[in-house]
Amino acid sequence: MTTTPTPPHSLRTAAEPDTVPDPPPGAPDLHETDGHQPLRRDGDLLLTGRARFVDDIAPRGLMHAAILRSPHPHALIRGVDATRARERADVEVVLTGADAVDLATPLPHFFEPSIVGCRTTEFRCLATDRVRWVGEPVAAVVATSLAAAEAALDDIVVDYEPLPAVLDADEALREDAPVLFEEWGDNRLGLFPFAEGDAAAKIAAAPHVIRDELRVGRQHVAPMETRGYVAEWEPGGRLTLWASTQNPHPLRTNLATTLGVPEDRVRVVATRMGGGFGHKFNGYGEEPLVCLLSRLADAPVKWIETRKDCLLVGAREFTHRFEVGFDDDGVVLGLSDRIVGNIGCLAPWGGWSMTFPAGMTFPGPYRIADYAIESVPVVTNKAPWNGFRGYGKEQAAMALERIMDLVAEHRGIDPAEVRRRNFIPPEAFPFWTAAKHLDSGEYAAALDKALALAGYDALRERQAAALAQGRHLGVGIGFELTPEGGDFAGSFVRGFDTSTVRVHPSGAVSVLTGVTSPGTGNETSIAHLVAREFGIAVEAVGVTQGDTDSCPYGFGNFTSRSLATGGAAAVLAARELRERMADAASALLDADAADFEFRDGAVVSRTAPETSLTFAELAETIYRRGLAAPGLDQPLLEVTRIDLPHNFHHVPDDQGRFSAYPSFPYSAHVALVEVDAETGVVEVLEYSAIDDCGVVISPGFVAGQLYGAIAQGIGGALWEEVPYDEDGAPAAETFKHYLTPRAPDLPSFRLEHQHTPSPFTLLGTKGAGESGVGGAMAALLNAVNDGLRPLGVHAHRVPLTPPVVLDAIVSGGAP
Amino acid sequence: MIRTHLRYHRPDTPDDAAALLAEHHGRVAVLAGGSQLLPRMHRGEVDLDHVVDLRGLGLRAIERTGGRVRLGAMVTYDDALASALLAEAVPLLPRVARGVTGGRQLTGHATLVGALCHAFPGTDMPGALSALGATVELHGPDGPRECPVDEFLLGAQSIDRRPGEFVAAVTVDGVARSGYCKVKHATGSWPIATASAIEDGDALTVTLGAVQARPLRIVIPDPTRSAVDDAVAAAVTAPWTDVLAPGDYRARIAPVVARRALTELREGAHA
């Protein structure tokens, strides 16, 4: 299924490329989805436990760091006495915030809030005079063993003067609330408005109006591998940091700034990652801290985040207060949602800005001319956020999908039909909203496929039959639009990336790329793309990522952009090399360069197939005879290119519209649950989904991402939460407190795919990875509420834990 | 990371074990399966210098003793699941063991007695062993001591274990007819409420676990729905609150869990 919208008038500066370049003659069809893919690189190592992660890095003489963290949600630091810790024989270094001030500059933000008009402030790697959240680093110890380092923390005495703390976002917005950053005057970080038309007037004039509220609790990424860093300084002053990070190059730049070291003398190696999801965006104080500790200890130093510390990092605590006006047919006439995000304390980490997509994603897949969305990030004395897969987009999915179901319930129309009546139709693309230029989509088709896959009509019959027996089955639809590939100029969150392709004399090919893999397998896909361009075996292509000494500058891994940027750049570089090699073949074999095709490991004349060289022979000949033999004029078999999705609109148009995201994959979900009305326990019985991320390069990896996204979405909808106690401390410290789904909690997922290529990316891809989290959360939210319908109640508090569901049943559903 | 230098002891006799425990009282823990103790040590939640491993004492038998069944301190969940004696004489215990999560890594080394001694309200064993009228056999510097389980369990994570003592075994009544119900949030969740229903002659009891700090044994005079609900509601006076569920939730579902255990007792366990 292909839509072919014409590329729009570009609002970007002239220097930026405008459209997808035309493929050269003989290039493989990049939009082909052949369903084949190579095996995952290093899959054998992973399956047999031989893959190496950051905690496996152990340079000779390694020492270990432990970090003292604030026990108070808000307090002044009146003094730190580390005398006793320093006296311990096995302790090498004790560093306090006051010590560190002269050793490291304030930390660069992952995304500087002032770029988007928000308030900002400075942070150090260790707190100096004030702590604002339980868990904030206050001092650090290096010792000969981790046990000794942790034990020494007990010998550091911090004199705190506790201050009033505020944990709830609504309370933090009150005039009498304790203020975290006094220079701001209040706790509001900023405001992101997204509006078109006149929502208030349309809602006021609408025949039917629903006002309601949806609350989402604080959640956490829960990567299998926590963060970790190993720093080592060479005697000449060169620093190497092995880091479980999603952004090795920006991390290197920031370390150079913070530590005052020339950037070229810093090497960051992003080690193999056991899950990123946004938790490993750079910006953490521990990044320069571990480097500093290593310098002071004059030894390599390792710090690995404990699970308890990992669970400090938050996300997703939002409240939606929405109002929707609609007509008799369930067509939405006007929509408003005031979204408040409890971002915890501000930090240089990459999480607070999830409040931007939370609003920007509205009105999702729906054609709603009049809407007014406000998203307000509010600081509190909880630990800061970092990124969490979905990155706020799941908020729009949950709110919009809940609204569709409420409208359907109100009008007595099937919820699927209400969605069909409100979808943006396929012929409307590309489609502008206030902050999105949507690329392409077949939304109703995707929903209908999901309904068919789920056996939707039969589910409704089973639901009715079960109800007759007193059982509460619920069917929930979730449709998610997932903006991907975002570009935020002024930050290192950029929409382009870089790849180098190098052909060696033996015919081996290296790809060095600025995009990194969180474990998704994009290195395998990039090798596949390059091998396809050269017509050689995928095994002949090596891919290097994450090492700043060898890879071109890149922005790493975020917003499902790897193939649309680094993958596309590698294809462009390979094409340029192929042209050079075809020219050389032309000179060597006396044939027209355009006549050569690259296939089966050889460069072959189309018209005279006996006129050929193997790929390796040609490469070696170019190295051995280039600039010596006639016609072999370009022996440089290395090309570096950048690419990006060609759908960024940074400068607002005359209606104030802009688009920082270029690609818009989507997915349709149908869940069947059973709600135990006596206990509130929800069981997920069946799950079906259709995704459309445009052209698919590696179907297995895309399906793998969708499986993971759905599982993570179900966990977020039903169980995952980090509550805080009345003392302002997080109450979830282990996976017995923070409940992620385990295999028995999930049914087998039925997945199928739809492919609507992006007209704006080289490969037609839109991005796979995040998509599915919000759809799953929305489907579960709706399924549980559908199950509660016969009881006449709603549950609008996520996660829908058994206490929440039973509370709704008992209390009559008031939110 | 375990922060202290630990001395590991593996005594060969109960008296040696008791002597070690007495000598290092306050700085020592008993090690059975270690499934609770070791993670807590790694997280720095317990601060010890010594552990006394019981595996040298041969306490892994499940055996008849008089009219009762005796389980040694080292009996694991896997042992309970494999025991023909328990299946016949005390089917409640394998029934409970089947629902313990953590997979083979846990069931192969976590012990029933260890779970009892951990005495965390959100676990299965305190409630189940209380339902079975267990007697706790301790061994200390003064020799053996027996203690009814309801006296042994003093409160949340609090047991009547005197300096130098360790639990060598528990003995339970043979109870052929029982039913069990456990409600929890998800697979990874600890129990939020459990109920063990026991029929002994004409007497019907339900013992609630995880609902309060200590197990709650309730005599059910009349198995009708309203009578069970009333009896349970009257008995639950101080429901347990933890990070996963507030006390009022436990109070609400306690009658439901009790009824479901009684239903299983009456109708047998479903798949």
Automatic annotation (TrEMBL), chain A:
<dbReference type="InterPro" id="IPR016208">
    <property type="entry name" value="Ald_Oxase/xanthine_DH-like"/>
</dbReference>
<dbReference type="InterPro" id="IPR036856">
    <property type="entry name" value="Ald_Oxase/Xan_DH_a/b_sf"/>
</dbReference>
<dbReference type="GO" id="GO:0005506">
    <property type="term" value="F:iron ion binding"/>
</dbReference>
<dbReference type="GO" id="GO:0016491">
    <property type="term" value="F:oxidoreductase activity"/>
</dbReference>
<feature type="region of interest" description="Disordered">
    <location>
        <begin position="1"/>
        <end position="42"/>
    </location>
</feature>
<dbReference type="InterPro" id="IPR037165">
    <property type="entry name" value="AldOxase/xan_DH_Mopterin-bd_sf"/>
</dbReference>
<dbReference type="InterPro" id="IPR008274">
    <property type="entry name" value="AldOxase/xan_DH_MoCoBD1"/>
</dbReference>
<feature type="domain" description="Aldehyde oxidase/xanthine dehydrogenase a/b hammerhead">
    <location>
        <begin position="48"/>
        <end position="164"/>
    </location>
</feature>
<dbReference type="Pfam" id="PF01315">
    <property type="entry name" value="Ald_Xan_dh_C"/>
</dbReference>
<keyword id="KW-0560">Oxidoreductase</keyword>
<dbReference type="Pfam" id="PF02738">
    <property type="entry name" value="MoCoBD_1"/>
</dbReference>
<keyword id="KW-0500">Molybdenum</keyword>
<dbReference type="InterPro" id="IPR000674">
    <property type="entry name" value="Ald_Oxase/Xan_DH_a/b"/>
</dbReference>
<feature type="compositionally biased region" description="Basic and acidic residues">
    <location>
        <begin position="29"/>
        <end position="42"/>
    </location>
</feature>
<dbReference type="Pfam" id="PF20256">
    <property type="entry name" value="MoCoBD_2"/>
</dbReference>
<dbReference type="InterPro" id="IPR046867">
    <property type="entry name" value="AldOxase/xan_DH_MoCoBD2"/>
</dbReference>
<protein>
    <submittedName>
        <fullName>Xanthine dehydrogenase molybdenum binding subunit apoprotein</fullName>
    </submittedName>
</protein>
From TrEMBL, chain B:
<dbReference type="InterPro" id="IPR002346">
    <property type="entry name" value="Mopterin_DH_FAD-bd"/>
</dbReference>
<keyword id="KW-0560">Oxidoreductase</keyword>
<dbReference type="GO" id="GO:0016491">
    <property type="term" value="F:oxidoreductase activity"/>
</dbReference>
<dbReference type="GO" id="GO:0071949">
    <property type="term" value="F:FAD binding"/>
</dbReference>
<dbReference type="InterPro" id="IPR016166">
    <property type="entry name" value="FAD-bd_PCMH"/>
</dbReference>
<protein>
    <submittedName>
        <fullName>Carbon-monoxide dehydrogenase medium subunit</fullName>
    </submittedName>
</protein>
<keyword id="KW-0285">Flavoprotein</keyword>
<dbReference type="InterPro" id="IPR016167">
    <property type="entry name" value="FAD-bd_PCMH_sub1"/>
</dbReference>
<dbReference type="InterPro" id="IPR051312">
    <property type="entry name" value="Diverse_Substr_Oxidored"/>
</dbReference>
<dbReference type="InterPro" id="IPR036683">
    <property type="entry name" value="CO_DH_flav_C_dom_sf"/>
</dbReference>
<dbReference type="Pfam" id="PF00941">
    <property type="entry name" value="FAD_binding_5"/>
</dbReference>
<dbReference type="InterPro" id="IPR005107">
    <property type="entry name" value="CO_DH_flav_C"/>
</dbReference>
<dbReference type="InterPro" id="IPR036318">
    <property type="entry name" value="FAD-bd_PCMH-like_sf"/>
</dbReference>
<keyword id="KW-0274">FAD</keyword>
<dbReference type="InterPro" id="IPR016169">
    <property type="entry name" value="FAD-bd_PCMH_sub2"/>
</dbReference>
<feature type="domain" description="FAD-binding PCMH-type">
    <location>
        <begin position="1"/>
        <end position="177"/>
    </location>
</feature>
